[in-house]
Write a structure and sequence with these properties.
The complex is a heterodimer. Chain A is an alpha+beta fold. Chain A has 2 helices and 9 strands. In chain A, strands 1, 2, 3, 4, 5, 6, 7, 8 and 9 form a 9-stranded antiparallel β-sheet that branches. In chain A, a hairpin with a 5-residue loop joins strand 2 and strand 3. The longest helix of chain A has 21 residues. Chain A starts with a helix and ends with a strand. By secondary structure, chain B is α+β, with helices and mostly antiparallel strands. Chain B is built from 1 helix and 9 strands. Chain B has a 5-stranded antiparallel β-sheet, with no helix packed on it. Chain B is elongated. The chains are: A alpha+beta, B alpha+beta.
Chain lengths: 169, 169
């Protein structure tokens, strides 16, 4: 018997190894610490993808400011490349000279109910109706990443009826 | 020396009990919640040529502080009535035994890392990847008016990585 090996594998050390390894394995299994550094990226196609349908790009919920406003605002891209804003389940109060505009969601003017001074916005048109689903064309040049808020805006009194912050769909 | 061995043995026993218990619990919470299907979201949008593909019923964005989680969760209904949950722009932290579930709650708090065991849940499957777009089948008959939130859920530690409250699209 080799004296060197038998001293390393003495009774006590052998038990420590036999017990310690399962503990380490159990801890590794429970916490899987290596996953902190390993990403698993997947990229599945949309379940009902159809190239003939408009694709939603951004969406957000409308919240009321000076007037109760609710519904959803979504920006779609049609197969031909045209972009448009669509309001669904939409309700706001009726009013004079109400417009739909895009603005920057971090615009200081939007923290107040009444816009004072300069308001950096993109006009999409007069509000077609204060209730119901409606579409508004977007010029191809509009940068939606910059103008990422939909505002229901009364031009006459500079009042923000309602606001939706858009997020990627 | 004997006492040292005993301590080590006790630790090992603890570790294994812990491992067994968590796996048993994981199996427990796999049970499906079946309910009557009642979706009133069938009414068609006016000028949307979306007849060929699935209709987005509900959508919401993820939030999560403990494990930062971001992205969008959307539930689609196909022409065949099948419900599909799709995650887009999705990112969370990798971890052991992470699942996608629907929970019977309006939302989960950012700081509520752990889900209450009494919270009803529907299992949708193991998380396919901690990054990227991915689809999950929702069991037919799932009551979406009851299960209103998507949770990225670590079965092993009953931990909620992130949650997305769903709202009508």
């Amino acid at each position: 018997m080799n004296a060197h090996v038998s001293s390393w594998l003495s009774h006590r050390n052998w038990i420590l190894v036999a017990v310690g390894i399962p503990i380490l394995v159990a801890l590794w299994w429970a916490f899987r610490p290596e996953k902190l550094w390993i990403n698993e990226k997947v990229s599945e196609p949309a379940p009902f993808a159809s190239s003939t349908d408009p694709q939603p790009l951004y969406t957000g919920k409308l919240e009321g400011k000076t007037h109760q406003t609710s519904g959803r605002a979504t920006i779609y891209k049609a197969p031909d490349g045209r972009q448009y804003l669509r309001l669904t389940d939409f309700t706001t109060s009726n009013g004079p000279d109400v417009h739909v505009v895009l603005a920057r969601s971090d615009d200081q003017s939007l923290t107040q109910e009444i816009v004072k001074g300069q308001f950096d916005s993109v006009e999409l048109g007069s509000l077609k109706g204060n209730q119901g689903d409606q579409n508004y064309d977007l010029a191809a040049t509009v940068d939606v990443q910059k103008y990422n808020a939909v505002v229901i805006y009364c031009e006459r009194f500079h009042a923000v009826f309602g606001l939706a912050r858009l997020e990627p769909f | 020396m004997l006492s040292k061995v005993k301590v080590v043995m006790a630790l090992a026993a603890l570790a294994f009990t812990f491992a067994l218990q968590t796996s048993a619990r994981a199996q427990d919470s796999m049970k499906h919640e079946d309910g009557m299907q009642q979706n009133d979201n069938m009414k068609h949008a006016d000028a949307m040529p979306q007849e060929n593909s699935g209709k987005a019923l509900e959508t919401g964005t993820f939030h999560g502080k403990v494990h930062s989680t971001a992205g969008r969760a959307t539930i689609y209904r196909g022409e065949d009535g099948k419900l599909i949950l799709r995650l887009t722009n999705f990112k969370t932290s990798n971890g052991p035994d992470v699942h996608v579930i629907l929970i019977a709650a309006k939302d989960a708090d950012d700081d509520a890392n752990f889900l209450k065991s009494s919270t009803g849940r529907v299992e949708l499957g193991k998380l396919k990847g901690n990054e990227g777009d991915q689809n999950y089948e929702v069991p037919t008959g799932t009551d979406l008016t009851k299960f209103q939130t998507v949770s990225i859920y670590c079965e092993r530690f009953n931990a909620n990585f992130g949650a997305a409250p769903l709202e009508k699209f």
